[in-house]
UniProtKB/TrEMBL annotation:
Name listed for the protein in its UniProt record: Diguanylate cyclase (GGDEF)-like protein/PAS domain S-box-containing protein
Domain called EAL: residue spans: 23-277
Source superkingdom: Bacteria
Length: 279
C-alpha cells in the first residue's frame, strides 16, 4: 500500500509538473501571438427564431500556433486572464470585430450586431468604456451594432460596481448580454438592476432539456422570467432540429449553435450572409 501511495504521489507530481510546463509554455507563446499575427476571429450566427433570419453573430477567438496547431480558447483564455494578456488581446478582439462588421456593412450586407466576449479582467479595467468608444469611432461602426457578452458570474461578483459599468456602457448605445446564464449564482433581485438586452441560456441546459424534464422546466422558466423582465432570451449550443423546435414552441427569441452553423472564418461568414440575402 505504501509503494502504491508513493507511485500515486509520483504520478500526481508528474501530472502537476506537466500542467505547469503546459501553462508556462502557453504563457510564453501567447505573449507573441498578437505580434506574430497568430490570432483570428471566427463568427457564429445568431438567428431570430420567429423570422429565421440571421440577426447577429458572436466573435470567437482562434489561435493558430506554428507548431502547437490550433489552440482552443479553453486552453489559453484562463492563462491570458491570469497574466493580464487578455487586456491587449481583448482590445484587439473588440477592434477587429468592429472593423470587420463595418466592412460587411459597407459591402452592402444586411447590418448585424457583433457580440464580443468580455473577461473579468477587462471588465474591471477602468479604460474599458474609453476603448469601446475608440473601437467604434475608429471603425465607424454604429454603437447599436456592437454587443458585449458579460458572464453571469462576472456581473454577480461585485454587483454595485458591475451595475455602474453596465450603465455607462449602455449609455453609449451598445447592446449587452448576460452570458452562460444559469451556471453561476444569480440573484433575481440583482438581475433587475442590470440594463441589459439579452440573457443567454447556457448550452449545458440546452443539451439536457429534451431528456431531463427538470432542465426543460428551467429553460421554460428562464425564457418567461427573462422576457417578463424585458430581456430577450437567446439559447446557445443548439445542435438538433428537435431542440430548435422546442425553443421555438416556448417562444425563445434567438438561438445559436452547430445546428445552424459552427463559428466560421470571416470570409466564409461573409459568403453565408451574401447567400442569405440572395434567397
Ligand atoms: P462562450 O462565450 O460560452 O462561447 C460559446 C462556445 O460554444 C464557443 O466555444 C462555441 O464555439 C461553442 N459552440 C457554439 N455552438 C455550439 C454547439 O452547438 N455545440 C457545442 N458543443 N458548442 C458550441 P469556443 O469558441 O471554444 O470558446 C469557448 C469559450 O472561450 C467561450 O465560451 C468564451 O468563454 C471564451 N472565449 C472565446 N473567445 C473569446 C474572446 O475573444 N474573449 C474572451 N474573453 N473569451 C473568449
Ligand atoms: Ca459568449
Ligand atoms: Ca456562453
Ligand atoms: Ca460558456
Amino acid at each position: 500500500a505504501k509503494e502504491g501511495g508513493r507511485n500515486q504521489l509520483q504520478f500526481y507530481e508528474a501530472a502537476m509538473h506537466s500542467r505547469i510546463t503546459e501553462r508556462a509554455m502557453i504563457e510564453a507563446e501567447l505573449r507573441h501571438a498578437l505580434e506574430r499575427d497568430e490570432l483570428s476571429l471566427h463568427y457564429q450566427p445568431k438567428v431570430d427564431l420567429r423570422s429565421g433570419a440571421v440577426v447577429g453573430m458572436e466573435a470567437l477567438l482562434r489561435w493558430r500556433h506554428p507548431t502547437l496547431g490550433m489552440v482552443s480558447p479553453a486552453r489559453f483564455i484562463g492563462v491570458a486572464e491570469e497574466t493580464g494578456l487578455i487586456v491587449a488581446i481583448g482590445r484587439w478582439v473588440m477592434r477587429t470585430a468592429c472593423f470587420q462588421n463595418q466592412q460587411w456593412q459597407q459591402a452592402g450586407l444586411t447590418p448585424l450586431r457583433v457580440a464580443v466576449n468580455v473577461s473579468a479582467r477587462q471588465f474591471r479595467d477602468p479604460g474599458l468604456s474609453r476603448e469601446v468608444q475608440a473601437a467604434l469611432s475608429d471603425s465607424g461602426l454604429a454603437a447599436h451594432y456592437l454587443e458585449l457578452e458579460l458572464t453571469e458570474s462576472l456581473v454577480m461578483h461585485n454587483v454595485e460596481g458591475a451595475v455602474a459599468v453596465v450603465r455607462e456602457l449602455k449609455q453609449m448605445g451598445i447592446a449587452l448580454s448576460i452570458d452562460d446564464f444559469g451556471t453561476g449564482y444569480s440573484s433575481l433581485a440583482y438581475l433587475k438592476l442590470f440594463p441589459v438586452d439579452y440573457l443567454k441560456i447556457d448550452q449545458s441546459f440546452v443539451r439536457e432539456m429534451l431528456t431531463e424534464p427538470k432542465v426543460a422546466a428551467i429553460v421554460r422558466s428562464v425564457i418567461a422570467l427573462g422576457q417578463s423582465l424585458g430581456f430577450k432570451v437567446i439559447a446557445e449550443g443548439v445542435e438538433t432540429e428537435a431542440q430548435l423546435a422546442y425553443l421555438r414552441r416556448h417562444q425563445c427569441d434567438e438561438m445559436q449553435g452547430y445546428f445552424f452553423s459552427k463559428p466560421l472564418p470571416a470570409p466564409e461568414f461573409g459568403e453565408l450572409l451574401g447567400a442569405e440575402r440572395a434567397l
